[in-house]
Amino acid sequence: MAVNAAPSGEAPAGRWAGRWVPWSVIGLWLALTVFMGPLSGKLSSVTTDSAADTLPASAESTKVAVLEDSLPGGDDNTFVFVYHRTGGITDADRATVERHFNTLAKQYPPKVEAPAGEGDEGLRTTPSADGKAMMFILDVGKNHGEPEALVGPLRDAAKDRPAGLELDVTGPAAVDGDMDAVFDGIDLQVLLTTIVVVTLLLIITYRSPVLWLIPLVAVGAAALTSMATVYLLVKGFGIVVNDQNSALLTILVFGVGTDYALLLIARYREALHHHENVRVAMVHALRGAAPAIVASAATVIAGLLCLLVADLNSTSGLGPIGAAGILCALVAMLTLFPAMLVVLGRRIFWPAIPRFSTAVEEKPGLWVRLGAAIGRRRWVAALGSLGVLGVLTIGLTGNTGALREQDQFVSAPESVTGFTVLRQHFPELGGQPMTIFTRPAHQERVLAVVKSTPGVAAAMPGQTSGGWADISVFPTDAPDTAAEYDTIKRVRTAVHAVSGAEAIVGGPSAENLDTEATAGRDEKLVIPLVLVVVLIVLGLLLRAVVAPLVLMATVIVSFAAAFGGSVFVFDTILGFKGVDYSVPLLAFLFLVALGVDYNIFLASRAREETVRLGTGEGMLKALSATGGVITSAGLVLAATFAVLTTLPLVMLIELGFLVAFGVLLDALLVRSVLVPALTLLIGRRMWWPSRLSRPVEQPDGQRPLAGDEEPALRR
Questions:
Q1: How far apart are CA 226 and CA 224, in angstroms?
Q2: Which of 150, 151, 340, 618 has the CB geometry, 3.0–4.6 Å to 609, for a possible disulfide?
């Protein structure tokens, strides 16, 4: 055969892949980018961390937050100023505190002043029983700005004080302000860090001075398009996007998009050895890679959309946001990216340019040797892998308790240390204030009931407006502790018993209590739904029952091991004081949906090879063919999620580390060793009930071949 003879079917493919097609695709993407680019920059303008927007829709604390936003003065920012001196408060200190209070109260008045005689207890300065501290509460109207803009000037305004008199500005608004400061500029930080990480990994992977840039450009276009799409979704459908979800959108698009690029480049490089025309080679590469890529994207999108059933707004909002990002990445990597590769031709692979040749020498490499070792010791490989995963799951016996809001910061800000000081000198005001709304006619009865509730240090009436009266309640226990949560539950039970009061209880700690409870319910609903949906997608792709069940089982075991290993790191090494309520569900979703990706890439190639070689040889061939690219994809995806560990918030560090560790565990152990070993042990029954699972009669009529001896099957 002549060296440049085209394989069967090349002519039709060549006619389809006309010279004008790649340029048209690039032109369409340029136009789309010009249109969507300005919209992507507006995404930050519609992100929100408002309690009313992000809290569970049905929670009692959400109703309080909505009322606070709607009533005049109800949404005032509450700051607590705690002055303290080790040797005891002096007369000069007292005068300073009084002066600061009078000045700030005039400069930052609440929207609505409390009626005379109501709430005075919360306005004057208060000395501590030990004589070493003084405090006052300052309610600042929202018309003066958001907490992030207020907390700095308020701290600066109180700098003029005697030497040795320390001040901590704390309270719910100060905590919100410090939390907002953490997220300030986080999108740009995540984007730039992710670009740097992906660039370095692509350069290392391809060792080419130019090739790394093409996936980066295509993924960048997908990221811009996804941000613009999410902005349009928010404007059109009112989807909730918080800063956390916005950062996760960037991570998902870059991580998944780069994975798709790696898989397509691997197939394209193979095709270039068999087809002289680069457009024809790309058509064949797409035919081989696109089904697995589409199935992978469908799995992730389906899993993300399962979040829509969650009651927690911030969780349910991530569903369509993430799905839009994955869809944009899919379209970009199957249209723009191939078009750019075709236009640039073979030279884009320089210096390792794949040459056209009908005979391509396959050299035994690491993955061939690994496959041979697994084939010889399949029981050892399977049991050894399960043993490693089992040991890691022991970590789940560590501290998996809920992380308090004040423990979210890597370095405790002033608002957090201030709560410690407040509790030290004012133990009766140790918790965050609760807010109770009740009908004005029942305010006195509700107030009396609250004051008599165990765990309540103080309760004082507030303003009355819009048909509601509010009461501020201070629990005795530290914020976000089990004891404080028990007090909130007792207060709710007590006020709900007041007939006609229509009383509801909210506040920062009540919001956290409701959020954790809702997250627990969401886990019980979303996790089974994700498993069912992903299992269906796998079944449709592989046209089997056993293989999807085996793959799902390995992913679940892998998640448990990753979670256990991560908890050990969080608890023993990093010293975190719990696991954020949102981490288990989000990590499960990402690791199941993304972890199944690698099994999809492997299993779909194995099924393709099984048609020619039989189950055992087909799996080993698939392992050798996809081992390098899937490992590279796993490293890239793990590195993109690891970007989250550079941020100063414990929740994002936990999520980033857990997903990165889980992806590496899945790519390097589960997909590389456990799945091939199980496939070899199960044999052709892996594909039951498809035709690939049935014994094949030999042409001479002798008995059916046993095990994996079946000859190649025709589709």
A1: 5
A2: 618
Distance CA 710, CA 692 (A): 9
Pairing of strands 468-475, 434-438: antiparallel
Residue 2: pLDDT over 60: no
Identify the DSSP state of 46: S
Residue 278 CA from chain centroid, whole number: 38
Q: Is 86 exposed, middle or buried, given 0-12, 13-18 or 19+ CB atoms closer than 10 A?
A: exposed
Please report, as a single letter, which amino acid is at residue 275. H
**In contact, 700 and 604? CB cutoff 8 Å:** no
Closest C-alpha to 225, from 193, 180, 270, 257: 257
What Rg, from alpha-carbon coordinates, does the chain have? 30
For the segment 521-556, what is each residue's pLDDT rounded down to a tens digit? 888 999 999 888 888 888 887 788 888 898 888 888
Distance CA 623, CA 620 (A): 5
Orientation of helix 147-157 relative to helix 91-107, angle to 10°: 140
Compute CA distances 687 → 491, 604, 675, 691, whole Å. 58, 11, 14, 8
Task: Give dist(CA 454, CA 652) in Å, integer.
Answer: 36
88: left (phi over 0), alpha (psi -120 to 50) or beta: left
Q: How distant is the alpha carbon of residue 191 from its chain centre?
A: 15
CA atoms of 265 and 212, how far apart (whole Å): 11
SS3 118: coil
Indicate the domain borders of the chain: 21-36+185-361, 374-397+522-693, 434-506
**What pLDDT sits at residue 334?**
92
Look at the domain 434-506 and name its fold.
Alpha-Beta Plaits (3.30.70)
CATH code of 21-36+185-361, in short, is 1.20.1640.10
The CATH code belonging to domain 374-397+522-693 is 1.20.1640.10
CA angle 424, 510, 130 (to 5 degrees): 15
The alpha carbon torsion through 386, 388, 390, 396 (nearest 10 deg) reads -150
CA of residue 24 relative to chain centroid, distance = 36
- Written in H, E and C, the secondary structure of 566-615 is HHHHHHHHCCCCCECCCHHHHHHHHHHHHHHHHHHHHHHHHHHHHHHHCH
In order, the DSSP letters of 217-278 are HHHHHHHHHHHHHHHHHHHHH-----HHHHHHHHHHHHHHHHHHHHHHHHHHHHHHTT-SSH
Tokens of 539: 């079944």
pLDDT in tens, 471-497: 989 888 888 888 889 999 999 999 999
What is the DSSP code (8-state) at residue 674? I
Among candidate residues 452, 507, 461, the one with its CA nearest the CA of residue 485: 507
Which DSSP category does 11 fall into?
A: H
Joined together, the tokens standing for residue 488 give: 């909130």
Q: Is 640 helix (H, G, I), strand (E, B) or coil?
A: helix
In degrees rounded to 5, what are phi and psi of residue 82? Answer: -115, 110
pLDDT tens per residue across span 76-91: 788 899 999 999 999 9
Same fold, 21-36+185-361 and 374-397+522-693: yes
